[in-house]
Amino acid sequence: IAAAELIALGARQARCTGGGVEFESDQEGLYRINYQARLVSRVLAPLAQFDCRGPEDLYHGARAIAWERIFSPGHTFAVFANVRSQTLRHSGFAALRVKDAVADRFRERFGRRPDVDPRSPDLWIALHLEADRATVYLDTSGGSLHRRGYRRQTVAAPIQETLAAAMVHWSGWKADRQLVDPMCGSGTLVCEALMAACRIPAGYLRRSFGFAFLPDYDNRRWATIKHRADGQIRAAAAGLIQAGDVAPQAVSAARGNLARLPHGEKVRVRRCDFQDWKSLENALILCNPPYGIRLEQGGDLAGWYARLGDFLKQRCRGATALVYFGRREYLKHIGLRPAWKKPIPSGGLDGRLARFDMY
Ligand SMILES: C[S@@+](CC[C@H](N)C(=O)[O-])C[C@H]1O[C@@H](n2cnc3c(N)ncnc32)[C@H](O)[C@@H]1O
What we know:
Layout: H1 2-8, E1 12-16, E2 21-24, H2 27-36, E3 44-51, H3 55-63, E4 76-84, H4 91-110, E5 115-116, E6 123-130, E7 133-139, H5 161-171, E8 179-181, H6 188-197, H7 219-230, E9 241-245, H8 248-259, E10 268-271, E11 284-287, H9 293-298, H10 301-315, E12 320-325, E13 340-346, E14 349-357
Parallel strand pairs: 4-5, 4-6, 8-9, 8-11, 9-10, 11-12
Antiparallel strand pairs: 1-2, 3-7, 6-7, 12-14, 13-14
The chain binds S-adenosylmethionine (SAM).
S-adenosylmethionine (SAM) binds at residues 155, 157-159, 182-183, 185-186, 188-189, 245-247, 250, 273-274, 288-290.
């Protein structure tokens, strides 16, 4: 689905690889994808690839890159490494070797070097080391795109924005029926549903993108792309999207997060137990039930899921429910046969997404 989304935004030759999607794009497409793609985390542009059998190879490979053509000693940078190799096992150490290589190259040529800023650098460099092959990328997103900017308040175990967006996508929802998250936490699922329904670009609230620091950055082109995408934003009907949560702090977080988005006020958020919804007939239900330690210690987790299953059976006739189980073992307690289920690991957990069609 990420490849299809990228193609719709102008990517060419998109093909799925192990951990992502490879594609080609011109500058306009690159800006559009970074601004509008909901399902991808980072858009990385490969700079160099080389054999790497140890720290020295990594250092020399990274130092051979003409960094001075990309940025200057007045900028800041950071290196983020992702390492799956027997020869270099620690991503922190690998990142450090690349950082030293960049700094040494600048120092040799200019007598000074750019500073490192690990939080908010101008230039984001990514290193992938797979077996004996290193690839150095520029992160044109400038940090993960799941940081949309609306989620400033969170509660325990928020779902990742890109996964929430994928759930909206997989549901096939076209803003044509009521969408409800009856255990909304910080409201990620309803925020993503609102953004999809109102065509709010995924990066609408992001303050900066990595591509803005590249030497060929074209501010006028970026402004045109942004203006065009923002011009597509449309209103949603009040009450089309609704949410609820039993915890008052979750309700306040969800309301606060929604308020940052255009038309966020159209989403109703109630404080209530999911069992207090009188009827959700024919609705689309998207939710991510609790799976935390608190509930386990509080006791009857199996009973909690059985009540959710009963609620779906008895009060949600004609509804479709997409439920993300943070831990797959909870699926069996719901007592319903899913139409499908997908393994989706997230946040270090072996989660499952299941779809239930209620008749
Ligand atoms: C895993 S969190 C949901 C996280 C949310 N998707 C987000 O992105 O922040 C589960 C939520 O279920 C809520 N919850 C637990 N029991 C509930 C109940 N009986 N009725 C409604 N909400 C409940 C919790 O308060 C918590 O906010």
